[in-house]
Write a structure and sequence with these properties.
Helix content is 31%, strand content 18%. It is of the alpha+beta class and 185 residues long. It has a domain of 127 residues: Gcn5-related N-acetyltransferase (GNAT) (Aminopeptidase). It has a five-stranded mixed beta sheet, with helices on both faces. Helix 1 packs across helix 2. The longest helix has 15 residues. Bound molecules: coenzyme A. The site of coenzyme A has 19 residues, from strand 4, helix 3 and helix 4.
């Protein structure tokens, strides 16, 4: 596959139009809603990134985001040459953490052989467009602090550190302490 750019650099503003024919340039992925028939390819793509094949998990995600999404949940795929080469999943969440309705992106993956060609940017732009259509003007995600690649990708698309700070604790380690202080369930 020829490695050349296909996509908008930032979520929203295309820097180049799709080629009218293959002879005029590289294939351009089509961004569309996921179909049930895509799920095997998506589970395989995820497994190449995570090393885990989670077929049952992906069926649950499909039921929640792929069908019956009611305009708030989005599961989009990039299809090129008849194959799924990437996907993005996100949803609008209302008043979580006290914040007005906000678009959350919680998964994005591009097939290794299709990376750095603009597919990720196209997927992000398509998701952002769907959020804008319902009046949402903020996009959020959470990234692993160790994943420099995904941080670089999101920064290139205009995302910056927000004002929310993720907190977590180890529930097993804290179990005794919480009980002894009388806060246990
Ligand atoms: C992150 C990811 C989605 C990017 O997809 P992609 O299609 O390769 O991204 P694009 O081609 O649209 O790249 C857009 C910009 O992102 C940045 N970028 C992309 N890949 C990068 C990399 N490996 N290292 C540094 N920056 C990178 C660049 O700034 C790039 O613009 P440029 O090529 O003009 O410099 C893809 O690499 C991926 O699927 N990674 C593994 C999955 C993952 O970690 N997901 C996170 C969990 S949700």
């Amino acid at each position: 596959m020829q490695k050349s750019k296909l996509a908008p650099q930032r979520a929203g503003a295309p820097r180049r139009k799709a080629s009218p024919s293959p002879a005029a340039g590289p294939a351009v992925p089509r961004i569309r809603g996921v179909k049930a028939a895509d799920m095997a390819q998506i589970a395989t793509l995820d497994a190449t990134v995570t090393g885990l094949h989670k077929a049952a998990y992906w069926q649950r995600v499909y039921r929640r985001y792929g069908v019956g999404s009611q305009g708030q949940r989005h599961f989009l795929v990039a299809e090129m040459d008849g194959r799924v080469c990437g996907f993005v999943i996100g949803e609008v969440r209302d008043w979580e953490f006290g914040a007005p309705p906000c678009g959350w992106l919680f998964a994005i993956d591009v097939m290794p052989s299709a990376r750095q060609m603009g597919v990720g940017a196209l997927l992000l732009a398509a998701l952002a467009q769907r959020f804008r259509r319902v009046g949402v003007n903020t996009l959020r995600t959470i990234v692993a602090s160790s994943n420099a690649m995904i941080q670089s990708f999101f920064r290139s698309q205009g995302m910056r550190a927000g004002h929310l700070l993720p907190l977590e604790m180890n529930l097993e380690a804290e179990q005794g302490g919480l009980r002894s202080e009388g806060h246990g369930a």
